[in-house]
Protein backbone atom coordinates (compact mmCIF):
# COMPACT_ATOMS: atom_id res chain seq x y z
CA UNK A 1 0.00 0.00 0.00
CA UNK A 2 1.39 3.37 -1.01
CA UNK A 3 1.43 5.85 1.84
CA UNK A 4 1.57 9.61 1.34
CA UNK A 5 2.40 12.11 4.03
CA UNK A 6 2.22 15.88 4.03
CA UNK A 7 5.53 17.54 3.23
CA UNK A 8 5.05 21.27 3.72
CA UNK A 9 3.64 23.84 1.34
CA UNK A 10 4.96 25.18 -1.92
CA UNK A 11 4.28 28.39 -3.85
CA UNK A 12 0.92 30.05 -3.22
CA UNK A 13 0.50 27.86 -0.11
CA UNK A 14 -0.14 24.72 -2.18
CA UNK A 15 0.00 21.56 -0.07
CA UNK A 16 2.85 19.19 -1.02
CA UNK A 17 3.08 15.46 -0.31
CA UNK A 18 5.83 12.86 -0.06
CA UNK A 19 5.69 9.21 -1.09
CA UNK A 20 6.98 6.99 1.77
CA UNK A 21 8.22 4.33 -0.65
CA UNK A 22 10.11 6.25 -3.36
CA UNK A 23 10.66 9.52 -1.54
CA UNK A 24 9.30 11.67 -4.38
CA UNK A 25 7.50 14.87 -3.55
CA UNK A 26 4.55 16.26 -5.49
CA UNK A 27 1.58 18.59 -5.28
CA UNK A 28 -2.04 17.74 -5.81
CA UNK A 29 -3.27 18.98 -9.19
CA UNK A 30 -5.82 21.70 -8.76
CA UNK A 31 -8.35 23.21 -11.11
CA UNK A 32 -7.24 26.52 -12.63
CA UNK A 33 -9.62 29.37 -13.59
CA UNK A 34 -10.96 29.01 -17.15
CA UNK A 35 -8.92 25.82 -17.57
CA UNK A 36 -5.96 27.96 -18.68
CA UNK A 37 -2.45 28.59 -17.42
CA UNK A 38 -3.54 31.04 -14.73
CA UNK A 39 -1.13 31.00 -11.82
CA UNK A 40 -3.04 33.41 -9.64
CA UNK A 41 -5.16 32.01 -6.79
CA UNK A 42 -8.83 31.62 -7.61
CA UNK A 43 -9.68 34.22 -4.96
CA UNK A 44 -7.47 36.80 -6.68
CA UNK A 45 -9.01 36.07 -10.10
CA UNK A 46 -12.49 36.40 -8.57
CA UNK A 47 -11.54 39.75 -7.02
CA UNK A 48 -10.20 41.05 -10.36
CA UNK A 49 -13.41 40.08 -12.19
CA UNK A 50 -15.53 41.51 -9.37
CA UNK A 51 -13.87 44.92 -9.72
CA UNK A 52 -14.19 44.84 -13.51
CA UNK A 53 -17.86 43.88 -13.28
CA UNK A 54 -18.49 46.83 -10.97
CA UNK A 55 -17.18 49.18 -13.65
CA UNK A 56 -13.66 49.85 -12.38
CA UNK A 57 -10.97 50.69 -14.91
CA UNK A 58 -8.14 48.30 -15.75
CA UNK A 59 -5.54 50.42 -13.95
CA UNK A 60 -7.85 50.93 -10.96
CA UNK A 61 -8.44 47.18 -10.72
CA UNK A 62 -4.69 46.55 -10.91
CA UNK A 63 -4.09 48.94 -8.00
CA UNK A 64 -6.89 47.50 -5.86
CA UNK A 65 -5.85 43.88 -6.44
CA UNK A 66 -2.08 44.58 -6.28
CA UNK A 67 -1.34 43.06 -9.69
CA UNK A 68 0.08 44.31 -12.97
CA UNK A 69 -2.10 45.97 -15.59
CA UNK A 70 -1.10 43.22 -18.03
CA UNK A 71 -2.43 40.62 -15.59
CA UNK A 72 -5.83 42.32 -15.45
CA UNK A 73 -5.99 42.47 -19.26
CA UNK A 74 -5.11 38.76 -19.52
CA UNK A 75 -7.84 37.80 -17.03
CA UNK A 76 -10.32 40.06 -18.84
CA UNK A 77 -9.40 38.43 -22.16
CA UNK A 78 -9.88 34.89 -20.80
CA UNK A 79 -13.17 35.76 -19.10
CA UNK A 80 -14.58 37.56 -22.13
CA UNK A 81 -13.68 34.76 -24.55
CA UNK A 82 -15.17 32.10 -22.27
CA UNK A 83 -18.35 34.13 -21.77
CA UNK A 84 -18.74 34.46 -25.54
CA UNK A 85 -18.31 30.69 -25.98
CA UNK A 86 -20.80 29.99 -23.19
CA UNK A 87 -23.41 32.26 -24.78
CA UNK A 88 -23.07 30.43 -28.11
CA UNK A 89 -23.31 27.02 -26.41
CA UNK A 90 -26.20 27.73 -24.03
CA UNK A 91 -28.36 30.06 -26.16
CA UNK A 92 -29.35 27.66 -28.93
CA UNK A 93 -32.74 26.82 -30.46
CA UNK A 94 -34.63 29.09 -28.02
CA UNK A 95 -38.39 29.55 -28.67
CA UNK A 96 -39.10 33.28 -28.96
CA UNK A 97 -42.09 35.51 -29.63
CA UNK A 98 -40.69 38.93 -30.46
CA UNK A 99 -37.03 39.86 -30.99
CA UNK A 100 -35.74 43.43 -30.98
CA UNK A 101 -32.40 44.31 -32.57
CA UNK A 102 -30.27 47.44 -32.45
CA UNK A 103 -26.65 48.64 -32.75
CA UNK A 104 -24.41 50.50 -30.29
CA UNK A 105 -21.80 52.86 -31.71
CA UNK A 106 -18.27 53.15 -30.38
CA UNK A 107 -14.82 53.67 -31.89
CA UNK A 108 -11.36 52.11 -31.70
CA UNK A 109 -8.42 54.54 -31.33
CA UNK A 110 -10.21 57.33 -33.20
CA UNK A 111 -13.53 58.19 -34.82
CA UNK A 112 -14.10 57.37 -38.47
CA UNK A 113 -14.04 61.02 -39.51
CA UNK A 114 -10.67 61.59 -37.81
CA UNK A 115 -8.77 58.89 -39.71
CA UNK A 116 -5.85 59.99 -41.86
CA UNK A 117 -5.79 59.33 -45.60
CA UNK A 118 -3.54 56.27 -45.21
CA UNK A 119 -5.95 54.85 -42.57
CA UNK A 120 -9.13 54.99 -44.67
CA UNK A 121 -9.08 51.26 -45.43
CA UNK A 122 -7.86 50.15 -41.99
CA UNK A 123 -10.60 47.95 -40.51
CA UNK A 124 -8.91 47.70 -37.10
CA UNK A 125 -9.50 51.37 -36.22
CA UNK A 126 -12.40 53.79 -36.56
CA UNK A 127 -16.11 53.38 -35.91
CA UNK A 128 -17.30 50.04 -34.54
CA UNK A 129 -20.80 48.77 -33.75
CA UNK A 130 -22.18 46.14 -31.37
CA UNK A 131 -25.28 44.45 -32.77
CA UNK A 132 -27.69 43.15 -30.09
CA UNK A 133 -30.73 40.87 -30.44
CA UNK A 134 -33.01 40.87 -27.37
CA UNK A 135 -36.05 38.73 -26.59
CA UNK A 136 -38.79 41.13 -25.52
CA UNK A 137 -40.48 39.14 -22.73
CA UNK A 138 -37.49 37.64 -20.91
CA UNK A 139 -34.97 40.41 -21.83
CA UNK A 140 -32.59 37.60 -22.83
CA UNK A 141 -29.73 38.57 -25.13
CA UNK A 142 -29.99 35.96 -27.88
CA UNK A 143 -27.03 37.03 -30.02
CA UNK A 144 -24.54 39.84 -30.45
CA UNK A 145 -21.91 40.74 -32.98
CA UNK A 146 -19.13 43.30 -33.13
CA UNK A 147 -18.02 44.86 -36.40
CA UNK A 148 -18.54 47.61 -38.92
CA UNK A 149 -22.07 48.83 -39.68
CA UNK A 150 -22.30 47.25 -43.11
CA UNK A 151 -24.10 44.43 -44.92
CA UNK A 152 -21.55 41.60 -44.34
CA UNK A 153 -21.48 42.18 -40.56
CA UNK A 154 -25.27 42.51 -40.46
CA UNK A 155 -25.66 39.17 -42.26
CA UNK A 156 -23.25 37.53 -39.81
CA UNK A 157 -25.26 38.95 -36.90
CA UNK A 158 -28.55 37.64 -38.34
CA UNK A 159 -26.92 34.21 -38.81
CA UNK A 160 -26.06 34.16 -35.10
CA UNK A 161 -29.68 35.09 -34.35
CA UNK A 162 -30.92 32.22 -36.53
CA UNK A 163 -28.71 29.73 -34.67
CA UNK A 164 -29.99 31.02 -31.33
CA UNK A 165 -33.74 30.80 -32.12
CA UNK A 166 -36.12 27.91 -32.66
CA UNK A 167 -37.52 27.06 -36.09
CA UNK A 168 -40.97 28.54 -35.38
CA UNK A 169 -41.87 31.96 -36.78
CA UNK A 170 -41.31 35.02 -34.63
CA UNK A 171 -41.52 38.81 -34.96
CA UNK A 172 -38.38 40.83 -35.53
CA UNK A 173 -38.20 44.61 -34.98
CA UNK A 174 -35.26 46.84 -35.90
CA UNK A 175 -34.53 50.42 -36.84
CA UNK A 176 -34.38 51.57 -40.46
CA UNK A 177 -30.76 50.59 -41.13
CA UNK A 178 -30.78 49.49 -44.78
CA UNK A 179 -28.68 46.32 -44.39
CA UNK A 180 -31.24 44.58 -42.18
CA UNK A 181 -33.73 43.86 -44.96
CA UNK A 182 -31.35 41.97 -47.31
CA UNK A 183 -29.91 40.12 -44.31
CA UNK A 184 -33.35 39.03 -43.11
CA UNK A 185 -34.39 38.06 -46.65
CA UNK A 186 -31.26 35.94 -46.99
CA UNK A 187 -31.05 34.30 -43.56
CA UNK A 188 -34.48 34.49 -41.84
CA UNK A 189 -36.66 34.18 -44.93
CA UNK A 190 -38.60 31.24 -43.47
CA UNK A 191 -39.29 32.38 -39.91
CA UNK A 192 -39.23 36.18 -39.41
CA UNK A 193 -42.19 38.57 -39.58
CA UNK A 194 -40.05 41.66 -39.92
CA UNK A 195 -40.95 45.29 -39.19
CA UNK A 196 -38.97 48.51 -38.89
CA UNK A 197 -39.55 51.14 -36.20
CA UNK A 198 -38.32 54.72 -36.71
CA UNK A 199 -38.54 57.40 -34.00
CA UNK A 200 -38.92 60.90 -35.43
CA UNK A 201 -37.47 63.89 -33.57
CA UNK A 202 -37.81 67.60 -34.26
CA UNK A 203 -34.89 69.55 -35.67
CA UNK A 204 -32.40 70.54 -32.99
CA UNK A 205 -32.43 74.21 -32.07
CA UNK A 206 -29.33 76.35 -32.50
CA UNK A 207 -27.33 76.84 -29.33
CA UNK A 208 -28.45 73.63 -27.63
CA UNK A 209 -25.97 71.03 -26.43
CA UNK A 210 -24.41 69.12 -29.28
CA UNK A 211 -25.34 65.64 -28.01
CA UNK A 212 -28.87 66.38 -26.83
CA UNK A 213 -31.62 65.14 -29.20
CA UNK A 214 -34.53 67.19 -30.40
CA UNK A 215 -38.04 66.79 -29.05
CA UNK A 216 -39.78 63.50 -29.76
CA UNK A 217 -42.47 63.82 -32.45
CA UNK A 218 -43.81 60.39 -33.40
CA UNK A 219 -43.02 56.76 -34.21
CA UNK A 220 -43.28 55.41 -37.73
CA UNK A 221 -43.72 51.65 -38.23
CA UNK A 222 -43.54 49.71 -41.46
CA UNK A 223 -44.00 46.03 -42.30
CA UNK A 224 -40.99 44.81 -44.29
CA UNK A 225 -41.54 41.05 -44.55
CA UNK A 226 -44.32 38.64 -43.59
CA UNK A 227 -47.23 39.75 -41.42
CA UNK A 228 -45.84 41.51 -38.34
CA UNK A 229 -48.15 42.99 -35.71
CA UNK A 230 -47.35 46.70 -36.00
CA UNK A 231 -49.26 47.46 -32.80
CA UNK A 232 -46.68 45.44 -30.86
CA UNK A 233 -43.65 46.48 -32.90
CA UNK A 234 -41.09 48.27 -30.74
CA UNK A 235 -37.37 48.66 -30.11
CA UNK A 236 -37.67 50.28 -26.67
CA UNK A 237 -36.50 47.24 -24.70
CA UNK A 238 -33.28 46.72 -26.65
CA UNK A 239 -32.57 50.46 -26.50
CA UNK A 240 -32.89 50.24 -22.71
CA UNK A 241 -30.44 47.34 -22.75
CA UNK A 242 -28.07 49.57 -24.72
CA UNK A 243 -28.23 52.07 -21.88
CA UNK A 244 -27.39 49.39 -19.31
CA UNK A 245 -24.48 48.21 -21.42
CA UNK A 246 -23.06 51.72 -21.80
CA UNK A 247 -23.44 52.25 -18.06
CA UNK A 248 -21.62 49.03 -17.17
CA UNK A 249 -18.93 48.93 -19.87
CA UNK A 250 -17.04 52.22 -19.58
CA UNK A 251 -15.39 51.74 -22.94
CA UNK A 252 -18.80 52.09 -24.57
CA UNK A 253 -19.77 55.21 -22.61
CA UNK A 254 -20.13 58.39 -24.62
CA UNK A 255 -17.90 61.41 -23.88
CA UNK A 256 -15.30 59.37 -22.00
CA UNK A 257 -11.51 59.15 -21.99
CA UNK A 258 -11.66 55.36 -21.69
CA UNK A 259 -11.74 54.79 -25.42
CA UNK A 260 -10.77 51.49 -27.01
CA UNK A 261 -7.17 51.18 -28.11
CA UNK A 262 -7.18 47.72 -29.73
CA UNK A 263 -9.69 46.04 -32.02
CA UNK A 264 -10.07 43.03 -29.68
CA UNK A 265 -10.97 45.03 -26.58
CA UNK A 266 -14.64 45.67 -27.42
CA UNK A 267 -15.38 41.95 -27.95
CA UNK A 268 -13.70 41.04 -24.67
CA UNK A 269 -15.52 43.71 -22.65
CA UNK A 270 -18.89 43.15 -24.32
CA UNK A 271 -18.61 39.36 -23.93
CA UNK A 272 -18.14 39.74 -20.19
CA UNK A 273 -20.86 42.38 -20.00
CA UNK A 274 -23.54 40.14 -21.55
CA UNK A 275 -22.64 37.38 -19.10
CA UNK A 276 -23.27 39.77 -16.19
CA UNK A 277 -26.24 41.89 -17.31
Task: Walk me through this protein's architecture.
There is one protein chain. This protein has 277 residues and is of the alpha+beta class. It has two domains: 4-30, no CATH class; 94-262, Nucleotidyltransferase, domain 5 (2-Layer Sandwich), CATH 3.30.420. The protein has helices at 42-53, 58-65, 69-90, 151-164, 180-187, 236-248, 265-276, and strands at 4-9, 15-19, 25-27, 98-108, 126-135, 141-147, 170-174, 192-201, 216-225. The strands form two sheets. Strands 6-5-4-7-8-9 form a six-stranded mixed beta sheet, with helices on both faces. A three-stranded antiparallel beta sheet has the order 1-2-3, with no helix packed on it. α1 (42-53) packs antiparallel against α2 (58-65), α3 (69-90) crosses α7 (265-276) and α4 crosses α5 (180-187). It is elongated, with a radius of gyration of 24 Å.
Amino acid sequence: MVEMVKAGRGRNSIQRFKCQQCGKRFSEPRQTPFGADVRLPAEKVTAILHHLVEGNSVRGTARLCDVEKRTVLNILKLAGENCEKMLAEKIHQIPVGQVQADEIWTFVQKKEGHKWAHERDAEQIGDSYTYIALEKTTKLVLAWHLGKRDTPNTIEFIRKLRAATFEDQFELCTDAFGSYLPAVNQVLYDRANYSQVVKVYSKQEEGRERYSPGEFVTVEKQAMRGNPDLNRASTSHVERKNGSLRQWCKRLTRLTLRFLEKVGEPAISVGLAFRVL
